[in-house]
Design goal:
Strand content: 5-15%
Distance between the termini: 52 Å
Shape: globular
Order of helices and strands: HHHHHEEEHHHHH
Mean pLDDT: 86
CATH superfamily of the largest domain: Intergrase catalytic core
Low-confidence stretches: 235-248, 261-265
Strand order of the largest sheet: 1-2-3
Structural class: mainly alpha
Number of strands: 3
Amino acid sequence: MKPGQVLDYLQSQAEGRSGYAANKDRKNLVAAWNWGIKYLGLPQPNPCLVDRFPEERHPRYVPPEEDFWAVWEVAEDQDKVILAVALYLGARRGEIFRLTWADIDFGQRRARLGTRKRQDGSLEYDWLPMTDELASQLSWWRENRPIRNTVHVFVCSEETPFCQSYYGQPFQYRQHFMRKLCERAGVKAFGLHAIRHLTASILYQQGQPVSIIQAVLRHKSPNTTTRYLRSLGVEETRSALEGLNRSAKVVEFRKKPSKVSTSEG
């Protein structure tokens, strides 16, 4: 493979999709070829290391707080608890679906999230404090979940023909459930990761320092957090990064009264 061939392919992606999409493909191709150099004896230098393409990046969509609460109101049972974990822990989708009951420490009011967003792809765990609202939601779900012989917090509990083979298994992707909730609530569609953006935005608007937002989002570097805030369309990013080694503390969000349904969701 020659650099010119890679460049031609990426150029077509930039023209047909976007410069951002082309650069994502470039990143994956570079990583794949580097893996091949290490394990398959592919030749060096890496032919995929071509110039990056200009990008026109738009701020990530962050749903308004009222839209989140509108979705919260129509959600039931397990779905409502998933929303609570997403908001109060700033958790990624995979982190939510990997949660086990061993990761929930009710005694010390904390939860453990495992992420693969590290260079070697291995799981790394971080403990975060739980708000009273989140602890209440998880405690209710532990006592009222319909499937009890599973270590995972969230599992498929629907008995439809499509879900029959997944019954009792932890979720992998769970496509469309957020879209359906948004449709029921009558708001613009957003996904679980957008709730993570909302968490960061709420904390920023509350005046929390970057050190606190960094701890909640579990970024290794404060620079990652400042870039993340910029990507959300926040007008100013704080320059004072004092107290970076502070441990996370519980930050109370403005919350609606708890409404935990007793019907199967």
